[in-house]
Amino acid sequence: MKKLFCAVVAALTLVAAQDVCNAQYYKDLFQDSGINLTSRQDLPAARFLGLSYETYYSAKHNPMEISVKDTIEQTAIMVGSTIDENGVLLYPDGAPRFKMIYVNGGRATKHGFSLTEKGRQNIRTFVANGGSLVGSCAGSFISSAGNESFKAEPGTQGKKGTITHNYEGKVKTEYFGVYPAYTISTDDLNQEYTGMKVEKNSPLLKYYNFGGDMYIDSVYHNGGSWIAEDPYTLAPGTEILLRYDYVKEKEQARIDRGSFPITGKVSCWAYKKDGKTGRVVLIGSHPEGVTEGDRLELTAAMFQYAMDGVGRPEIKGELKNGEPRKMVKATVENDPAYTRIGDKQYHHFTVVIPKKAKNVKVTLESPYKNDDLYLTLNKNDFAFLANARHHDITLGCDKEMKFDTLEPGLWFIGVQCATTVETVKTDYGVAYTGHLEVLNGVPYTITVSWDE
Question: Over the stretch 130-154, which tens digit does the pLDDT of each residue have?
């Protein structure tokens, strides 16, 4: 009965927790401008929204320009290193360290190959554990299960055709597969501009009205993706956000060359598997470099919708009277429920305080003496600093809260690592300095005890 009570109350508080859980990330956004992607440094929509973000950018995506230096840097950042075992995207327990990753355009297959399977798996883990992803052009291809071809049927002016099934239901080796269906290439539509019609009831309209005409003009396109309204490319639960609109005369010229019309095809879509995962928002074109107007607002809306779809906070476990919970394991031990805490991360626990409990004590201890852990308590809801009934933000890791009595019922306990790294600018983005130990996590033990 006690377990059922805990489960019901926790479920009821998940939505409320989303309002304050933004504090559980190191930063808002990470931009992947890595090997064989556009080496974009600035991200106007992130600045427009006031987001905190970091970028990794390599040499230009001409394969001849890739150096050993690029490979070493990208591996350390996206895959991991001695000081950061699973890379910058993930906390030691595999939770997302950023709310969202943005993947640039470029060469999808070559970038995926350069990440190695471990790097690709890190991005899958990022999304599976609640981080959101936005990808444009190559970023949309690589995030899917694979890219397919569309062959028009003779005599249909390209309006009907068949999708080539290249991967037999499997994920292309170099791709992430976080959108669990396939994308289709626009073939010869390169270095062009198209319009985009906003789908009726598109969730992007929650953020901007795009001039009130449900239309976004002159979005740059360079061989990007689309999806058909077909089970092979439209995963169950996919939301259609925008559709292409191409100049009629140019469209006919493409048809005359044997291509298919792009007008009306899905150009931007979103997918979220469940409450635990992040939201994936993909677009076949390139609005991301524009600094004003509808196209800037389009990128901003995609970012906002993605970040509003991050996964719910997860509970590490239920604490029992007098039983220490040791959160001391390293990433390589693959035991997230007992893994150390990362920089600015929250760990959440629950405890049921009985009616006759008195002399309640919550104790937090760590062997690390140069870092700061915060302790928070809240009734019937996740305990973030912004909403906690009780908190201790004394410098240092060791804490002890004492109460003669506590209101009986379900309590949430939060531990936050307030210590974080410092950054210095480099020729590939930023490097971390200072408290580097937090990247592999701060170990601690938490105990709740009372008399009955």
Answer: 999 999 999 999 999 999 887 767 6
Helix (H) or strand (E) holding 305: helix 293-307
- pLDDT band, residue 14 (cuts 50/70/90): very low
pLDDT digits (tens, 9 = 90+) for 409-435: 999 999 999 999 999 999 999 999 999
| Residue 166, pLDDT score | 77
Q: What is the pTM of this model?
A: 0.92
Phi, psi of 384 (to 5 degrees): -95, 160
Evaluate the CA torsion angle 325, 331, 334, 336 in order and state its sign: positive
Q: In the chain, where does the domain assigned CATH 3.40.50.880 lie?
A: 34-307
Q: How close are the terminal C-alpha atoms of the chain, in Å?
A: 20
Secondary-structure breakdown of the chain: helix, strand, coil percentages, each rounded to the nearest 5: 25, 35, 45
Query: What token pair was written down for 140?
Result: 């949309």
- Give pLDDT, residue 60: 66
CA-nearest of 137, 298, 139 to 217 is: 298
Tokens (6 digits) for 336: 């997230």
Q: What does each C-alpha distance from 5 to 1, 314, 317, 380 come to in angstroms?
A: 6, 17, 15, 11
Q: Which two tokens stand for residue 427?
A: 């020729």
The pLDDT confidence band at residue 3, using thresholds 50, 70 and 90, is: very low
Q: Which amino acid is at 396?
A: G
- Bridge partners for 195 per DSSP: 245
CATH class of 315-451: mainly beta
Where, residue-wise, is CATH 2.60.120.380 in the chain?
A: 315-451
- CATH of the structural domain 34-307, one choice from 3.40.190.10, 3.40.50.880, 3.40.1160.10, 3.30.360.10: 3.40.50.880
